[in-house]
Structure formats: C-alpha cells, structure tokens
Amino acid sequence: MSTPVVASPPVPLKKRSGPATHNYSKERKVGEGTYAVVYLGHQVTTGREIAIKEIKTGIFKDGLDMSALREVKYLQELRHPNVIELVDVFSTPHNLNLVLELLPCDLEVLIKDKEVVFTMGDIKSWMLMTLRGIHHCHRNFILHRDLKPNNLLIAPDGQLKIADFGLARALGNPNEDLSSNVVTRWYRAPELLFGAKHYTGAIDMWSIGIIFAELMLRVPYLPGKDDVDQLDVTFKALGTPTEQIWPNVSSLPMYNALTVYAQPSRQELRNRFSAATEKALDLMIMLTQLDPSRRCDSTRALLHDFFTELPRPTEPRDLPKKSIKKEEPDAKRRKI
Amino acid sequence: MISLLTPEEEATYLDFYSNNIIKTCNFFKMPTQVKLTAASFFKKFYLVNSVMEYHPKNILYTCVFLAAKSENYFISIDSFVRALQGTEAAHILDLEFIVLQSLKFTLLVHHPVRPLYGFFLDFQAVLLHPEPVMYDVSVDTLGNLYNRAKDWLNEHAVTSDVTFLFTPPQIALAAMYDTDKRITDRYLKRKFLKEDKEKLNVIKEGDEEQPDQNTEPQNEESEKQGVVKEESETNSHHNIKLHTQREHYETLVRTIRKCIKIAKEVKPTTREESKEIDKKCFFALNPKKLIDKRIKRLALEEK
Questions:
Q1: pLDDT in tens, B235-293
Q2: What are the Basic and acidic residues biased-composition ranges (chain B) (predicted)?
Q3: What is the distance between the alpha carbons of residues B207 and B240, in angstroms, rounded to a whole number?
Q4: Which of B99, B100, B103, B106 to mutate against chain A (most A CBs within 10 Å)?
Q5: What pLDDT digit, counting tens, does each position of A107-147 carry?
Q6: Is A89's CB within 8 Å of B93's CB?
Q7: Residue A118 shares a structural domain with residue A81
Q8: How much is the ipTM here?
Q9: Identity of the residue in A74, A77, A91 whose CB atom sits nearest the CB atom of B101
Q10: Residues A204, A289: one domain?
C-alpha cells in the first residue's frame, strides 16, 4: 500500500520569466537605419503588437552607438501618454533590442496626405499632445533636440507620441558646452543656426512652433536648402534679429546680419495663416520668438488661451487617419 | 577545493578598484560627471556579478568607457586603449554589452554634485540676503565651504555605499554638514524653523492673508462665527505647523548624520591586502590553472 503522499507543489521562487528573447516575436522587417533595424512583432504573453528596434552591435569601431545609448538612457526615464513607451530592453548575443510600442503612423504622413482635411480642432489636439509630451521631457530636464513631424508618431487610438530620442540629452549643467549641430535643419532654432553653445528647452519650443505652422500650411514652413539658406529663409519669414529685439545676439559665434529683413507685421502673418484665429497667431508668435529668452516655454504654451477658445481640441480617437492609399486597393482585392 | 573569496574580501577588493576609477578618469581629464557615473556603474555591476566571474580590471575600464559615452564625453576606443597598459580594444568592447545588461540598461544616474551646487546657491540666498545672517560668513566663506564639500564628496561618497542608501540632495547636505556644521545647521534652521522673529511674523501674515483653504465659505449667517473660529484655528494651525517643521528638521539632521557615518566607514584598502585577495581571485577565475597546479604537485609527489 502506498501511502498517499501529499506532494505540495514546489513553491516557485520569484518566478523568473525566461529570457526576454522568448517573450517577443519578430515578424516583419519594416525599416532599416544606420544603426538599427525595425521589426514588427508581438509580445508573446499578451499578444500585444510591438515594434522591435534591433540595434546592431559589434559593427562600430567604438562599441555601442551613442544614439542608441541616448535613446535607451532617456526612454528608460520617461513615462507619459505622449512619449513613446519603451516596453522592454533585451539582448541577444549580437544585438541590443528595444521593444517599443507600435505606432503605425506619423504626423508627416498625415501632413503630406492631401486627401485628409485638418480642422482647427485637429491641429489644436495635436499641438496639445505634442506640448504635453515635451513638457514632460523638459520638466525632467531632458531636451529632445530633434522634433519634427516625422518624429511625432500616431498610435492606433489617435494619441500622438514623441519618438526618436537619439539626439536627446540632459540639461542643467551650465559648465558644459552643447553642440549646436542638432535638430533637423528646417526645425532648427535661430540660436542654433548662429552656433550657440548654450541653449535651453526653447530650441524644442521653436521646433513646435514651426510644426504648428506646417500643420496649418500643409507644407514645410521654413524649408532651407542648406545651413546658410536656412538663415535666410528663417529671417525672411520672421525678420532678422537685431540687438534691439534680441540683446547680445551679435555675440553668438556664427552671427552675421546677412540681409536685414523687417519683422513681419501682424497683418502679414494673418495673410500667411488665413485659417488661424487671433489666439492661434498669438501662440505662434510666442513660439517663434527669435530671442530664446522671450520664446514661451511649455508651461506657458499649455496655458495659452488658444487651447481654451472654441473649437475644442478633437478627441484623439476622432482625429483624421491616413487615407486609404492607391496601393491599398490591391490589398483589398486580395482579401476578396 | 578552490578557496573562494568571502563577501568581506570581495568588498575590500572592490574598494581598491573603485579608487582606480577615479585615477583612470583623472588621467583622461574626464569631467566629474563621468567619474561619478563610472563609479556608479562599477558598483552596480558588482551588485549582480562577482569578481570571481569578471575580473574588476577590465570591467573598470569598460565602465569608464561606457560612462564617458553616456555622459557625452566621447573618447574613441583606440585613444582610450592606447593609454591603458595591457588592455586591448576587444577586451572592453566585448564587456561593454555585458555591463550594459547588468545595469538593466539604466544609464541615467543622478549625482550629489548638482544638488550641492544648488545648495551653494541657496545658502547664499538664505544666509546672505537681504543682509548677512552670520557676521563671519561671506560669499567667500560659502565658496570655500562649497569647494571643501566637493572634495568631501570625492573622498567619501564616490566609493562608499551611500549612493544606494540616500538621495543625492541628502548626500550633498551631508557633505556640507560634515564640512561646516555651524553654517549648515544655521541654514537648515532658517529653512525649516524660520528661527527669526521677523520670519515668524512673515509666516503669520501669510497665514492670515490666505485663510485656511479647506474651510469652505459657508452661508452668510455663520460667517461671523467663522471669523472667530478661523482666528483660533490659525493659531493652533500655526503651532502644528511649527511642530511638523521641527520634526522635519530633526529627521533630516538624523538622516544626514547617518549618511556621514556610513560614508566614513570605508576603510582604505592597502595594496598588500588586495594583492593577497587578487591571488585567491585568480584561481577562482581560472579554476583550470589551479587543477593543473595540483596535478603537477601530485605528479611530483609520486615521483
């Protein structure tokens, strides 16, 4: 007779989920950059769709790439509905893998999609989400340094999320010199164009101002052909900075008052942005102040009257989506 | 049997190498920020790994290299390795990923130096403006205090465990407090206890100006009673406030003292001591060498 042995199930020590590698599937390659390949996949346990940024290691002479390190460093610190979520990080023998939430669309795609109509409510909603995201970065003393429509991603539920922290850096040590060679040219603030070695969150605010303009115009606002042209284009649109409107500007390393353009009049701006209300223009002017110390910060921008006047910002889920493209009928046919 | 290192030996050994981080960073003239981050990486690495798995020498260099990149003070691997003896680029690059993994990919480290600078500024605001509070304290005195507190941090905070146990501002205050207790204590008292009469008045006025926000304006009839009540409430409120202020102050001073005590507990490790441990460690890292040695000895004995 065997005595019934009541085998108590072994109490698992703090369950160690297997190597993270097995928790994610890489299914489809969707993009390849200089230092990373992006795959679509799923989180196996939850079935959640995710994107995996596989960072190549061992191909660079100096080890892990700086942008990859920056991206990991700052995304680890930030959790906000309007900042891309870093779900996990894991390593395979030769790669560093960033598991990011899947964000299928971006603002650039929408701006270029001429079949999509933007209402002022839509623009307000995107601006609000962008500002909330950047406010979160700035209050954690992190500069993004590469804001542009292409880096503002859109989640399936319509939420806008700031992505690509490859150029981000911490702010706050006044002794350190910063590089002025940051931000994609069209969205680069004048102090950067003049080679400033010390700057603040105001450079991100400028980018947001230019994006605001682009959302209304549906074409890039200040498309400079090269760095010199960028100065010209910028000042033609917004006036050449002088000592009067921007004290000490002439002491910046690369300052030169090429051609002196006058400041645009209010009426001139009204004509340029025919859809903008007076409040919208006010906000735009505050965001595109040439003097960074006069430019408004994220707090003041978020509290601006533009966001409380009608129309209300569109609910994220009701925001315009990418129109069905011409290639899509194929896909449809296949389904039928 | 291989005799393994005891936890104490391992700790002593690591202390010895922590000091080398500072030497290495100083050699490359790296900013303080890099030095502190490298030291933090190194300590964190050995929270989850053992010196018997990874020898600290190359881990140390890897931490410095990675910290330099993470803190925007890039140095190419070639010029880095050229300056170090007996280390090849591959040694460091192979370990870089392992270190990053052990850090759980967390690269941002908050150090006490920034809050220390903040306190230096606030000491000036609180102790010198609008007029000096202490007859013998000037900007120079505070500047001197700040510099010595920085040295204190380099000497005690980088290598000890305090960074795991206290917040960066607490450590910064500990440095100030241990450097000059009199000035720091005066600052804390002014900050927390509003010690001066003048200051007390300021509080009172402030309280009266914004009556307790919790008491909702009731209907007009009870308003008169309300005023009387409010006054006495403000008074007891004020007492409670003073009491909690005192508690805050005392808790903080206790915390700071504890921090100082722990920071200073680290004993300097002698070279001889760590050499001894190094020998033991060598066989733990290379068990095969020990076996070979034993076999050789056995073979000799048989003869």
A1: 777 777 778 888 889 999 999 999 999 988 866 667 777 777 777 777 777 777 777 87
A2: 221-236
A3: 13
A4: B100
A5: 999 999 988 999 999 999 999 999 999 999 999 999 999 99
A6: no
A7: no
A8: 0.79
A9: A91
A10: yes
